[in-house]
Amino acid sequence: MNVTTSMLVLAISASAITPATLFAAPLTTSIEKTEQQQEQEQLAQLITVAIKSDANMAQINAQQHAMLETSLGSNSLPDPKLKLGIGGLPTDSFSINKDPMTTLSIGLMQQFDRGNTLDLQQQKGDIQANAIGIQQAVRELDITNKMTQLWLELGYQQSVYRVLQRNHRLVTELANFTSTNYAIGSGEAQDLLQVKLQVVKIEDKLQTNLQTQHRIMAQLSEWLGADWLTNKTIIQASNQLSWQQLNQLMPRLTATTQHYSLLKQHPMVQIANSAISANETQVSIAQQAYKPQFGIEVMYASRQANGMSGKPASDLVSAYITMDLPLFTNNRQDHHYAAAQYQVGAAKSQRDLLLNQMNAKVNALLVEHDNLNQRLSRYTDSLLSQAKARTQAVERGYQNNTAQFNNVIAAATDELALVIEQARVITDLNITNSNLAALINGFDIQPFSLQFQQSTTINNHNQ
């Protein structure tokens, strides 16, 4: 009995997951630090590959260039109009060389826009193109957050799988030992059935765990591609990251419930600000409608007939200036100007709503972060030690014939469940950190090279 129960306790104690303290200075060896750095680098590489191969990024890039070209095209005058005609044609003969009043005319007409409308339209287009470019940063943050969360989930499943594997191996040895004892008449049948049932339960958990790992790998292929999934790339993930950047921001986050200074740097807020700027430019465009619109027209008329003196009649040249006078502005211009101002107000309200929503998310995540830290401390300080002490107490009771074998199994199972639950809390805490980092730019991994390259391209294009 002593050997039997000792092996069962060994199965649990060998499975303990020792969590690194996420917001303190953990005592780790250089080997552990190297492994953590390697895992962090592997995650960064996967995120970079995902961003570069993301079809949505290519779509945003194409849309931005399309808007830039449209912006350049909008800052040009309309094409001139060519005017051809014949005038003063006599109806009795329809001859062009008998009446000196008959002319063959050719002319050009050019219309100019009101005020600075063309420059303002290009300015608005540039603002909109820049906003589209910022969508790349939004997409990069989204990919980084989702990839990080899948990485953490995969790391959790892999850590649990290793725990279950060790327990399966040791409990299988325990089952063999119990079977041998039963065969020689020194064991109970119910003990043998109980430990065999425990082996089957662990095998089922192992299969369920592998199924979850395969599902997560399939989800990763959304960004890494089907070929990556086909190649069956081996990933050694982790359910916790260092979060150095986020840890530096945590004092500012916990000191107040208003986080607008950090949130204003978020790409979504920058896009909202671009929408405000674009609508303010539209107000300026609407103001140009109160200015007159000019046009010029130049005509050259050739006469084929002779004049009264018998000599060839001289040709004629005409020049005109046209001007559109906005006299009745209350019918059109006033309404367009008012509509543009309302659009500015709507864009500002949309930005304020976005900031309030993001601020509420940050506060909710901070509450969740604090609760998870408290739970993790409870597991580390009391739950695991109490569960281990209970298992040892039940073991001693079984050795002294004051406890049943199923009590030993139940205590060991509860301790194993607590170990796995602790790993779940660590994972949830890191997922909360990932969601926080996505809102306040707290990722240690920031592969935003595509966004920087795009910004450089826009600046060069404007210059």
TrEMBL record:
Annotated compartments: Cell outer membrane
Keyword tags: Cell outer membrane, Membrane, Signal, Transmembrane, Transmembrane beta strand
Signal peptide stretch: 1-24
Gene Ontology CC terms, in alphabetical order: cell outer membrane; efflux pump complex
Keyword RNA-binding: no
Coiled coil residues, start to end: none
A Gene Ontology molecular function term of the record: porin activity
Xref: PANTHER family: OUTER MEMBRANE PROTEIN TOLC
Protein name per the record: Copper transporter
